[in-house]
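ligand=zinc ion
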Amino acid sequence: MTPYDFDGIETRWQKRWTDDRAFEVTEEADRPKFYCLEMLPYPSGNIHVGHVRNYCITDVVARYKRMRGFNVLHPIGWDALGMPAENAAIQRGTHPEKWTRENIAGMKRQLQRMGFSYPWSREIATCDPEYYRWNQWFFLRMLERGIAYRRKAAVNWCPSCLTVLANEQAEGGECWRCHSKVEERELDQWFLRITAYQDQLLDDMAQLAAWPERVLVQQRNWIGRSAGAEVDFPVEGGEPLTVFTTRIDTIYGATFVVLAPEHPRLERLLADGAARQAVARLRAQDRRARQAGQVEKEGVFTGRYAVNPFTGQRIPIWAGNFVLMGYGTGAIMAVPGHDQRDFEFARKYGLSVRTVILPEGAPAPAAAPDAAYEGPGSTVDSGRFSGLASDDAILAMTAHAQEKGFGRAAVTYRLKDWLISRQRYWGTPIPVVYCEKDGVVGVPDDQLPVVLPKDAPFTGEGGNPLEKVPAFVAARCPRCGGPARRETDTMDTFVDSSWYFYRYLSPRKDDGPFDGAAMRYWFPIDLYVGGTEHAILHLVYSRFWTKVMRDLGLVPFDEPVTRLFPQGMVHKDGEVMSKSKGNTVAPDDVIRAYGADTLRLYILSVAPPEMAMEWTDANIEGERRLINRLWRLVDRHAEELAGERGAEAAGDLPPAGRELRRKVHQTIRKVTEDIEERIHLNTAVAAFHELVNEVYRLEADVQSGAGRPALREALETLVLLMNPFTPHICEEMWARLGHAEGLVSHAWPAADEAAAREDAVQLAVQVNGKVRGHVMVARDATEDEVRRAALEEPRVREHLAGRPIAKFVLVPGRLVSVVVR
Ligand SMILES: [Zn+2]
Ligand SMILES: [Zn+2]
């Protein structure tokens, strides 16, 4: 027997694919295309099994689509800018670029050893000036259109990463990368006006039918559109205060107004120094904790009054720590009867509570409610608006406020503009200079890229290393030629990943970010596989970027990705694999012990790809056994089969041959459906196991004589079906079975429906309503034949006990019912 030398087989075929440029593609107008994309890795140093899982899924689909005749683009690159490289430079005295390039080289070797079918000529690294040049070019286009702008803002500052973060990267008050508690700082920063696209980001979700609903829900919540009304509350001796509310139907219950401690009008409303100090204390509280409702509700009475424009009542104006400037107008009408937060505040400070909404079917308001009723209902004690359903009251009251000129329908969003300034070295330099005469001036296109200087000091002593490179900071103003200071902020690395998938189309193009004809051929992306931890980061930013590109006339569509497929995490010992937990598995070790094919097959076999999978070393053995069993079958029969080409399996076969053939075609049908529709690769792997078992069961009956064509068909079909999963050994077996052409673009097998049909069906046999046995009958058996078979079944005979048959009913394909007296 020929031993299964996976290392020799795998490296041999990998070399062959490279030599043949097997996965390189060009646009071919007359061939259907398939753009199969995976999220590009950060070159941290090692491919981990989470990457492997992601890339195995896309590789199966890519290889399968090639066999279906598609022209498949399945590229890879490196998300190579970002903080870890700079931190490594500080800790180890190396240069971020050196660290990054070495990691890329190592990880590339790992990916190649896995046998992934990438067109390596299209590899990109976002740290290449020829790549980030186009980040700068896009930025300048956005600057021209007012999408990129600079302003002073209270921003999230990570004291450990020593840089600001986007809101999306500081959710819950923690740095997304290092989990440090985020601080707030006032800084001049660059933003991208993503809020100009917030409605489109929501509305265009209608085009994302093949995205997982949970990703869309996360994005919808993040954008946080809420419709409501703005109402102006007159202030005694002052300008009116505008509040935003989604529940104007409760306005007759508004018994006080609360301003955020940061509200710009507050200072002038405060009665005295004591109140000012008390508000200053509120302002000093942690904003994140306030937002999360983690601090005790506290307030300060301003000493001033407003008027509820609906009731005409005089109501006090308070400052409260539970109101934030970031949402709505930074001022609320407090309705303690119908908002629990307001209720608790009113209780604490002895403010009045009015019930103005009754739940459906409630007889009358409770005299002293012990909680707010927040649901909808019908209005009471609401003047001429009493007796309306909440929805109707909202419409009527908004219209009334509008008519009287003290209110209007309004929409607010949770989404904020995207803060892209980073005070770090290893990012794309923001291409502007500051001139004393001309102010902010964009670097002209013909001076791009603004390249990172190599000689920055990496001391870790705070401050951006770029500030300490005089030759970088000193610039000429492109407008007046005078001296200017170059911007030292670099861009958020999420800029790099917002459009990288366009760069794969023409990675070396030097007169534009990508080739238009190639874009029209390959886009949109047919399948995008990755983790959903980026649902509100990368997957929002890249949708935004494409919309900006569309408005620049660069692409003709709204959305770049047709189908998003989220892959699940890899767990070990019941926990997510991570370095800090010490439960990681190194793919290299697995490849050394089992080979890449077994690793690929194993990682796809455990669970549906979108679910979390539990890594268990013992279960790899099961997949190794499958490959070994198939290898032995082919080894036993290859020589003879290779010598006798031509016999068709469709001819006259003995019963065992027909049985095997049936299983073969059922397997083709199943595996095709599993890959094509649901990408349920684990059930496809289960089908390989079944078919291999079936070949072993019938081997003796089909290995010689008239059954041999069925054996050939079974082995060849297994090799073809498994090729996307375990491509190296399949190529090897295919060659040994006598084929000169490789499998990369070999046609996928077609299921013969007639052959797949079961000849025999199993029927349940009931006696007096109880199932007493089962019989196998031919699918086209007559009722007499079925009757004979059913009545002769031993257990059924036992229950009949020789009594006369009163009734016999046949439900074809399902059951037989016999009634005896
Ligand atoms: Zn951090
Ligand atoms: Zn100037």
